[in-house]
Design goal:
Chain lengths: ~120, ~120
């Protein structure tokens, strides 16, 4: 790996370093929860630029960093794009059923509030 | 209800006003999560003074307020004691399985970390 490549590898917690409190915090923001719902709806990795979020670009970057540093998403560079994927297997191994129940709750809330919520 | 009684009734969100993001935020703090785990382990209501928490009294009060205002616990005065109970039914109706999966995840994490976590 060249120095330039190393600089472009983003820091992630190992699975054993993922903490429930950090995961719940990451999921407790409506913008971050909407990102996670979009990622959960596809098997593909999605570029940050895919998401049409009602916040500034720097806030978007902040939200993705919180998701990455908590262990909820894995971010990798592909060319100039930062790609995002849910760490489903790591989360399911550590906290069985948790992500699914949060996603179901988010869907229930969105349905109940008629699209007012994420 | 006398004025004095009214002042002692604490504000809670109705079930329809409980928001997933607020619930997840309330659960994302280790002290609050430990309170919820203790409450989940009993059918009884527990006084704030029951909990032996590694924080100051004012911080303890803050944590209980966050839990109450998010809809996770119901607080009522009994004499001079503030009693706390989990709003299990409201949460289960709104977000089926969510509380149980968080409690299971908290237990798994505590077991995995050998008592280092809540």
């Amino acid at each position: 790996m060249t120095e330039r490549d190393a600089a472009r590898v983003l820091a992630h917690p190992e699975a054993a370093g993922i903490r429930l409190e950090s995961v719940l915090h990451a999921l407790s923001d409506p913008v971050r929860l909407s990102i996670v719902r979009d990622l959960a709806a596809t098997d593909a990795e999605l570029a940050c630029s895919y998401f049409d979020l009602p916040v500034t670009k720097s806030t978007t970057t902040h939200h993705f960093r919180v998701l990455r540093e908590s262990g909820v998403v894995r971010q990798t560079y592909r060319g100039t794009a930062k790609m995002n994927g849910l760490r489903r297997e790591d989360l399911q191994t550590l906290f069985p059923g948790l992500l699914d129940s949060v996603l179901a709750a988010a869907a229930a809330e969105a349905s109940r509030l008629g699209g007012l919520a994420t």
